[in-house]
Specification:
single chain, about 130 residues, alpha/beta, Hypothetical Protein Aq_1857, Chain: A, five-stranded mixed beta sheet, three-stranded mixed beta sheet, 4 helices, about 35% strand, globular, DUF779 domain-containing protein, DUF779
Length: about 130
C-alpha cells in the first residue's frame, strides 16, 4: 500500500463526522496563504472550486483533500495530519461555529516512505477511481 500523504486524527475525524451529518459530503482545501490561509479549510463538497492550480493529495474520512500547487511545492516531502483544536479561526471553514479549528501537523517522510508514495493529481484531473479509494 502506498504511503499516504494526508492522515487524520481521531478528534478531527469526530468533527468531520459531525459536519458531514449537518452539511452532507465534504472536501478540504489548504491554500497556503498567510494566517488562516495556511490552515486546512473544510467546505461542503463542490462549494470550493478546484482546478489545475490545486493538487489532490488523497482522502480523509471520505473527504477529498486538496492543496494549492504552490503550497504543495513546499510540503511535498511531508506527511500531513489533519487535527482539530479548540479556538476560533478567522475563516469560512465549516467547523468554526463549533468553536474549533482544523490545523495541520506534519513530519518529513522517511527515505523508505518516499520510495512508495501515493500519487497526486491536478485538482481538475483526479481520476474517479482515485477519488473513490
Amino acid at each position: 500500500m502506498p504511503t499516504p500523504r494526508v492522515l487524520v486524527t481521531t478528534a478531527a475525524e469526530a468533527t468531520i463526522d459531525l459536519l458531514r451529518d449537518e452539511h452532507g459530503p465534504l472536501m478540504f482545501h489548504q491554500s497556503g496563504g498567510c494566517c488562516d490561509g495556511s490552515s486546512p479549510m473544510c467546505f461542503a463538497k463542490g462549494e470550493f472550486r478546484v482546478g489545475g492550480n490545486d493538487v489532490w493529495l488523497g482522502r480523509i474520512c471520505g473527504c477529498d483533500f486538496f492543496m494549492s500547487r504552490s503550497q504543495f511545492e513546499y510540503w511535498q516531502h511531508t506527511q500531513l495530519t489533519v487535527d482539530v483544536v479548540k479556538g476560533r479561526g478567522a475563516s469560512f471553514s465549516l467547523e468554526i461555529p463549533l468553536g474549533v479549528r482544523f490545523l495541520i501537523r506534519s513530519r518529513l517522510f522517511t527515505e523508505d516512505e518516499e520510495k512508495d508514495m501515493a500519487p497526486v493529481y491536478a485538482g481538475d484531473e483526479v481520476p474517479e477511481a482515485a477519488a473513490e479509494a
